[in-house]
């Protein structure tokens, strides 16, 4: 982790996505994969499985929310200088349609909307392979400079 502190946010996430730094444990636990990163924009991919199901037979909403939190958070992180940290203050998620194993590969895009000196906001969306919206959300992050 000390190497990550020496890198800018963008370089840290690039190194994680490239396998040069270990992924965060949550990504391994949930099965998320970082697909693309650029300044202020992050894309994750995820293949839902039965281990992600809730009792009603669909992927638990918390999985989509965690996916959104990851993509939106990484979008914010990508804009930060070395040594600057952040934490999520708020996440709002709207669930549009259920996700199941039959949904197949989904993509989650996070994009920074506002970057201030203490607060950043971002928006995100989860879509299936056909581009159909599954969930969307926003986040507010507190920056530690």
Could you outline the blueprint of secondary structure elements for this entry?
Elements: H1 2-6, H2 9-17, H3 25-30, E1 32-38, E2 41-46, H4 61-77, E3 85-95, E4 106-115, E5 119-127, E6 133-144
Antiparallel strand pairs: 1-2, 2-4, 3-6, 4-5, 5-6
The residue fraction in helices comes out at 25-40%
- Choose one word for the global shape: globular
CATH architecture group name = Roll
Please report the distance between the alpha carbons of the first and last residues.
18 Å
Percentage of residues in strands: 35-45%
CATH fold naming = Thiol Ester Dehydrase, Chain A
Largest sheet: 6 strands, antiparallel
**Over the alpha carbons, how many angstroms does the gyration radius reach?**
15 Å
Number of strands: 6
Number of domains: 1
Number of helices: 4
Order of helices and strands: HHHEEHEEEE
CATH superfamily: Hotdog Thioesterase
Low-confidence stretches: none
**Would you state the CATH class?**
Alpha Beta
Instruction: Describe the oligomeric state of these chains in a short phrase.
Output: single chain
User: What is the spatial order of strands in the main beta sheet?
Assistant: 1-2-4-5-6-3
The averaged pLDDT comes out at: 96
Keywords:
145 residues, alpha+beta, Thiol Ester Dehydrase, Chain A, 38% strand, globular
């Amino acid at each position: 982790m000390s190497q990550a502190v020496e890198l800018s946010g963008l370089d840290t996430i690039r190194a994680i996505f490239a396998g040069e730094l270990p992924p965060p444990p949550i990504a391994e636990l949930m099965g998320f994969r970082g697909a693309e990163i650029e300044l202020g924009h992050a894309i994750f991919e995820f293949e839902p499985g039965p281990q992600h199901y809730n009792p009603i037979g669909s992927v638990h909403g918390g999985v989509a929310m965690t996916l959104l939190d990851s993509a939106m958070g990484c979008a914010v992180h990508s804009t930060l200088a070395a040594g600057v940290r952040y934490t999520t203050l708020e996440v709002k998620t709207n669930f549009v349609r259920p996700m199941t194993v039959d949904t197949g590969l989904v993509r989650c895009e996070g994009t920074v909307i506002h970057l201030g000196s203490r607060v950043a906001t971002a928006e995100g969306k989860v879509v299936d392979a056909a581009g159909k919206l599954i969930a969307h959300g926003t986040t507010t992050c507190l920056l530690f400079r």
